[in-house]
Design brief:
Strand content of chain B: over 45%
Number of strands of chain A: 11
Distance between the termini of chain B: 40 Å
Shape of chain A: globular
Oligomer: heterodimer
Largest sheet of chain A: 7 strands, mixed
Shape of chain B: globular
Order of helices and strands of chain A: EEEEEEEEEEE
Number of helices of chain B: 0
Radius of gyration of chain B: 14 Å
Strand content of chain A: over 45%
Largest sheet of chain B: 6 strands, mixed
Structural class of chain A: mainly beta
Helix content of chain A: under 10%
Structural class of chain B: mainly beta
Chain lengths: 112, 113
Amino acid sequence: DAMVIQNPRYQVTQFGKPVTLSCSQTLNHNVMYWYQQKSSQAPKLLFHYYDKDFNNEADTPDNFQSRRPNTSFCFLDIRSPGLGDAAMYLCATSSPRRDTQYFGPGTRLTVL
Amino acid sequence: GQQLNQSPQSMFIQEGEDVSMNCTSSSIFNTWLWYKQDPGEGPVLLIALYKAGELTSNGRLTAQFGITRKDSFLNISASIPSDVGIYFCAGRKWGNRDDKIIFGKGTRLHILP
């Protein structure tokens, strides 16, 4: 059974048109992460939530926002996508500290 | 920000050979993690290391958490074709209300026919 679900798997948007990616989990984990992964590169941490506490990475552009309305769901909002934002976006969850980290399958974003 | 230096960047080996890759960092981490990622999929956790000096095995995989808490290595013995993929190290560091996991740049493993 899927534990970390990302929708959609593939998203196409136009330059400058806002887009929202969603992530849900059935693990009841406290921590949820969003990573950006470009081709042949490492996943880059954008931000993470520890419960409702939002932790932004210093180099994450303001164009990227996130919401976590409850434990199960987390959203990534890209306010004005540029061509450079085309990438795979990975959601992950974890219980704090000792548990492992579980990744969703990712959403591949294309910007036209 | 924190950076992990992972090497080698890529490896070309014959089936049956052993593989070794490592990660170093200028920062101390609470936990080191090793992942494998196949094309079009999210990373899958292979081994988690929780204590400095810890040596852990998972089948043909062995990983160690460096004594200084700033490095780790992963060994794969007797490689097989399904080992092909990208391997990432990751360092985990937590505070009171944050729990950050940062990835190395990856090692791409190729197995020659």
